[in-house]
Amino acid sequence: MIVGIDIGSTTTKAVAVETAQGFPVIRKIKTRAADAVTSATGAFGKMIVENNIRMTDIERIMITGAGAGSLKNDLFGIATEKVDEIQAVGIGGMFLAGKENIIITNIGTGTAIIDARRDSIRHLGGTGVGGGTIQGLAKKLLPTSDFNSIMALAETGNLNQVDLRLEDIMESDISFLNKESTASNFGKMLDSARSGDIALGILNMVYQVIGMLSVFAAKSRNTDRVVVTGNGSDNSIGKAVLSVITGMHQVHFEYPKDAAYTTAIGAALSR
């Protein structure tokens, strides 16, 4: 059995992979902690306790993510190796998508875009816009920075209260954009805007940025598919925003099961 641990800036994910008849069996755990060592050891402990795993069953531990560099020694006397985070995302993304030669948009605190192929995994770039942006802006603009509360507020929101749309400045469509397309995120910001409108505006802006960068990456690699992974992949409002982008640019976004654990899975499968 191999344990993969992704020590992120806000959340740590751990998976246990056991090869049975050639098929990886994956058990998953997610935790939060203040520092990398506590996150990693806590996730590992939770994994073995909740899944009744014996320490002697674990062959090695593979760690990756922002906090991996803080761990200098083996964990609990088990051989522990570090895996490059981009490589882990690429391997995990291909595994979960069930195919190779894909563009992966990994949405976490920030967002990384990766060209994953059987013989090479390349970091194409990305943006600092991601889940951290949502929570950081919400902390100052809304009465909450709790993600579930932000989502609940956004469900009640109206973008016409905060975003400037083409219909506000033009009488007809332009190019492939219709009159409801965004001309400027937060470019209108009416005095009557409520917390729900602002929450929706934040989410809309973040996923529009991520979506358009993904479109550019996909088109640069002559593909019309993007696999979305990371904590931000399972977001109903974000998916709706990306769906609109698909309609405009014919680049389709796919959401594999267990996408939040992509990096941990890739670390575990990296050997």
How does this model look, in words?
The protein is of the alpha/beta class and 271 residues long. The protein has helices at 36-50, 85-97, 131-141, 147-154, 166-169, 195-220, 236-249, 262-268; strands at residues 2-7, 12-20, 23-31, 60-64, 80-82, 102-107, 111-116, 121-127, 164-165, 182-184, 225-229, 252-254. The mean pLDDT is 93. The protein is globular. It has two domains: 2-98 and 261-268, Nucleotidyltransferase, domain 5 (2-Layer Sandwich), CATH 3.30.420.40; 103-255, Nucleotidyltransferase, domain 5, CATH 3.30.420.40. The strands form three sheets. A five-stranded mixed beta sheet has the order 3-2-1-4-5. A five-stranded mixed beta sheet has the order 8-7-6-11-12. Helix 3 (131-141) packs antiparallel against helix 6 (195-220) and helix 4 (147-154) crosses helix 6 (195-220).
What tags apply to this protein structure?
2 domains; 36% helix; 8 helices; globular; Nucleotidyltransferase, domain 5; five-stranded mixed beta sheet; alpha/beta; 271 residues
Summarize the structure.
The protein is α/β, with parallel strands linked by helices and 271 residues long. Helix content is 36%, strand content 24%. The protein is built from eight helices and twelve strands.
Helix content: 25-40%
How does the major sheet shape up?
Answer: 5 strands, mixed
Number of strands: 12
If classified by CATH, what would the architecture of the largest domain be? 2-Layer Sandwich
Rg on CA atoms, Å: 20 Å
Q: Number of helical runs?
A: 8
The H-level CATH homologous superfamily of the largest domain, spelled out, is ATPase, nucleotide binding domain
Kindly identify the CATH topology of the largest domain. Nucleotidyltransferase, domain 5
Give the structural class: alpha/beta
What is the rounded distance between the termini? 12 Å
Report low-confidence residues grouped into runs of 5 or more. none
Series of H and E elements: EEEHEEHEEEHHEHEHEHEH
**Biggest sheet: strand arrangement:** 3-2-1-4-5
Domains, number:
2
Mean pLDDT: 93
Proportion in β-strands: 15-25%
Level-1 CATH class name of the largest domain: Alpha Beta
Overall 3D shape: globular
